[in-house]
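Recap quiz, item 2
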Amino acid sequence: MIHSLFLVNASGDIFLEKHWKSVVSRSVCDYFFEALERATEPENVPPVIPTPHHYLISVLRHRIYFVAVIQSEVPPLFVIEFLHRVVDTFQDYFGVCTEAAIKDNVVVVYELLEEMLDNGFPLATESNILKELIKPPTILRTMVNTITGSTNVGEQLPTGQLSVVPWRRTGVKYTNNEAYFDVVEEIDAIIDKSGSTITAEIQGVIDACVKLTGMPDLTLSFMNPRLLDDVSFHPCVRFKRWEAERILSFIPPDGNFRLLSYHVSSQNLVAIPVYVKHNITFREGSSQGRFDLTLGPKQTMGKAVESVLVSSQLPRGVLNANLNPSQGTYTFDPVTKLLSWDVGKINPQKLPSLKGTMSLQAGASKPDENPTINIQFKIQQMAISGLKVNRLDMYGEKYKPFKGIKYMTKAGKFQVRT
Amino acid sequence: MQEWANQLCENRQFGSKMTDSKYFTTTKKGEIFELKAELNSDKKEKKKEAVKKVIASMTVGKDVSALFPDVVNCMQTDNLELKKLVYLYLMNYAKSQPDMAIMAVNTFVKDCEDPNPLIRALAVRTMGCIRVDKITEYLCEPLRKCLKDEDPYVRKTAAVCVAKLHDINAQLVEDQGFLDTLKDLISDSNPMVVANAVAALSEIAESHPNSNLLDLNPQTINKLLTALNECTEWGQIFILDCLANYTPRDDRESQSICERVTPRLSHANSAVVLSAVKVLMKFMEMLPKDLDYYGTLLKKLAPPLVTLLSAEPELQYVALRNINLIVQRRPEILKHEMKVFFVKYNDPIYVKLEKLDIMIRLASQANIAQVLAELKEYATEVDVDFVRKAVRAIGRCAIKVEQSAERCVSTLLDLIQTKVNYVVQEAIVVIKDIFRKYPNKYESVIATLCENLDSLDEPEARAAMIWIVGEYAERIDNADELLESFLEGFHDESTQVQLQLLTAIVKLFLKKPTETQELVQQVLSLATQDSDNPDLRDRGYIYWRLLSTDPVAAKEVVLAEKPLISEETDLIEPTLLEELICHIGTLASVYHKPPSAFVEGSRGVQHKRLPGSAGSGESVESPDAGSAAGVSDAPPAVIPSQGDLLGDLLNLDLTPPSATGPPPAATSGMQMGAMDLLGGGLDSLMGDESEPPPIPLRTDTPQSPQLPHQSPSPPDYSPTELGGDLGGSPAMGAGFGAPPAAMPASFNAPVSSGGLDDLFDLGGGVGMPMGAYSPPKAIWLPAMKAKGLEILGTFARRAGVIQMEMTLTNKAMSVMTDFAIQFNKNSFGLTPAGPLQVLTPLSPNQSIEVALPLNTVGPVMKMDPLNNLQVAVKNNIDVFYFSCQYPISMLFVEDGKMERQVFLATWKDIPNDNETQFQIKDCHLSSDAASNKLQGSSIFTIAKRTVDGQDMLYQSIKLTNGIWVLAELRVQAGNPNYTVSLKCRAPEVSQCVFQSYEAVLKN
């Protein structure tokens, strides 16, 4: 199981280590540093690195490498999932997961790590339980603790720890009972030169923020549940009920949690909400290249495409770009060759465009690579897959909760080849 | 190498300076004193703050062990937080202060009795982390109590503590009987306790491979499955991994486990999903393929795997490595999901490379166009490694999907036109492989390749290009000039290129002896006299001797036909794949190596195998039969990965044709001797380039008195002259292990088509027209053996006339005319009834269909196998020989229906010794359908009897030469296996007749 954990910052320093079994010398991380040096980009460090006596499994989050050391055969996904959970927990506790935040709260971090893993076996990873065991630091609580001499470690065995619903604690009380659900879809797509779709898929999630008193039992039903054939649920969802009736039935955890994530694959038709007309050309023997880009909406069901950001890695030979945006602003970094254009909202009546010339090194040959265009955007009040919640009901408690559902579509890895 | 090692050392030193020294500087004296004072303060609050400071120093690697007694003094407290902090400190430093640590024991024992379960659990947890032998004995009693605690939270913590203790002192744990208590916990009422007990036992079992700790039986399995639904995600992983070690008794149990595990595929934790996939992949093996559930399960496996690919890149990487295994075992699961493996340009490089690999594995005729378009796109990306791999991938597609080869070649040519240096080089390396897979097909591109000769600077590309030039020397006008240009800088080339150049020039010499004598002398002298490389030198000598002893033999050896490379370059070997499938989700699956090969902690891991299919009923003959059939087709021969390919190529050049099939039939004893020598001795000599060659050959330096020609300038290599000259020398005789006088020049025997027979056998696959069964056409004479003439053929019996139906294709560049055909004497006297009717000249790339009627009045000679037919085909270019096998059913005459009485009498008359029994497997015809089908091929059913639900068909066959074959075919309803008993006065034919039965019934 997991032996030790090292946290390494962007400059390659170990700033925290934790051992759950015997102490492993931090020199084991030298193998990691070697890999780090070899990697061209920080994210290109291989996730699993073998060393003569150990294996190093690492994830990169918030510019911090979380390097786990294992000695025996352990499922790597188990370790990676656990590391993600550690990151989520830190973020949950400290608001951000940065080196500074971890250093400021080093004792809490240590207590948390000790609580999350015992002898390398995960112990308590649900944030609800952890929060009962170790109170998150708040300015108010720190002050109160200092004055009263009380502690931020819970004295009671967390109620959820052994119950059938380990994700929810008992005795939750709110004055305003509310349950909000966000349906967020990210569309990943590769569009080829001619504008036809090579692949397109949707990664959707339903994130919930539930603040309800007692032990509510919720059911959520969809207008078109048939869309969801590839889903991953939070453990609270009753799988049998879903299989039989396509209804989500669950006792929710308290607070924020991800109810389900789903995947609408390329086999179904995925609507592409924007199109790009582009013309990026270089002529042989000329030190000028033409750049011409126009964006437009399609299949958006009348909703506005907002927060549009276009970026593209131009060929290395490009010295500078002299462009003229019809709206928004653009920047070109002559060192990294990164062009980014902050478009804002697309107005269907007046399509945004970016036109102009690129200057090449004099005498250099025509660049071989074709730049890929990356597009980010947001569309509010719409789930691009067409998923719609039908109704949300609550059983088991008497009060009337306040309910709300929001939809949003975002671009994930949305790439247009030229 | 040395340099590299030094550099590495430096790096390591640098690395350790960077990390260690910075933090392990001792803390300032004053700081420790200050802390000491604070720890001994009376104020609780101050104490706690001090302990916190100590912990903080500890976490960043400062040495605060000097404070041990002061910190332990704080342990006796009611404040839970303070207690926890002290425990943290204890765990870290107890080992370095064992004597002081004893002070803590009492507190632990007391805490284990605390009314608060949280404190009991905390104490038992911390106890196990104090890795001091002296202390552990004191802890056994409290641990025993905690294992039976009323609170499940304490029990589950105690279960893990057993594993910790085992790690410190295994003997103690066994003596105290903790293992049995742990086993009992598997039946605990609380799922969390069960999960932790399983986890602890699994960890302990890893160091005791044979202890049978996790004795899985249907009862425990049932308990685990119940706990599976209720425990935490991590517990689910432990339980699923444990389940994967179980082998169900039958397919029904297997199915019920699968049904209960399937919901885990929708879990949000990817490790749970992958562990569930492992269990399903393993247990699926036991399910009969015709079961509806089997199909449902296959369909359910795809979506979760696809979903894993939308996770973070690290998860994706592990998932992709596993998917790589899964698609090799069961390609059908993801065959429609090609698009999710398309590479996004900002994927991390390790994800890109894995995706590419899987794309090739999934490539098929249906999606190849899409795949190629993608690969071409990738080949224009920026990342050099990725681009190279993409170019290689195009080559692998060509080799894998035959129909796409042409398109792949043209894509590669397009890429070569880009003139991007590394793309060109990579393309040339893969084109070489394509040539090896499809010889004599794409040689027209050689000219384009030659244009890029000057830009090649990588050894692999140079070697590939040289190989191409040598292999097709006869088609390249200026091959000698090209090779000569490489020769100029011979000593600056890498060994790989030198070896290849040597071989290529020898090939060239054998093909165009007159113009290239000087060249070959030059290269042999460079290789043998001016080189320090033993491999190169020895290879040079071998060629030298071979050429001088017997140029004909040299030709036979050096220009021997090379086996075609098969479709996948790096399929995992099937047994390893089976083992890895059992280890899905583990490190083994990431490294594609069996756990025993690399995991240090797992001493003597047992090799896991997939369970065999139970199938339906009695078809369980060998447990592997089912699982082997599970793979959609027979695993293709494994050929070494790209990197080894060149070494392999060189090796093959020297291997006699026996590698492809049986050696030519007409070889004399002497020849065999020579071949053995080359095949065995030289093979091992050449096989591994790093291996020093055997001593006897090594001593044959030019200075050795054994060699007659020791002059520094190599002798004249005129083949005839040297053949006799050198051959007569006793030294040479000794070298080849037989007197050279006995070396007959009988190499001009027809080239064996041993390999083709296999092909023919395989060919008996697809549907047949009405009437007598006729096998599909198979390649009888490949173009490369017949200077561009390719013959595909089959036999058919149409309206009582035996016909040989052939497709002649001209793959050469010149027109072919004047075709004629002749048969050798054969078992049934088959002979052409007329001349071969090819009236028009056959122009390049043209094919023609010919049907040659045969009769059976020719000279008879018994062949082995009986239905073997040796054929000679002549055209304006040369005479070519091949042999083929005809299905004996061509010879079944239409009046082969015997009278019932005669049948009975004959049956009795033929001695029982002449009866042979055969099994026909997997035939799903009713007895009537079978009878009808057989009748179409002149196998006549005379009577039918039904005994105990078994149909017995009595049948007769008459051959063209009047031999009668009597048969009894037993068909049992519901059993796909038929038994056929054949009786015949000439029992030799039985085997062939049985083959015809099988061929007819299965088509």
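Chain A touches chain B through 105 residues (CB under 8 Å).
Chain A has a mean pLDDT of 85.
End of item.
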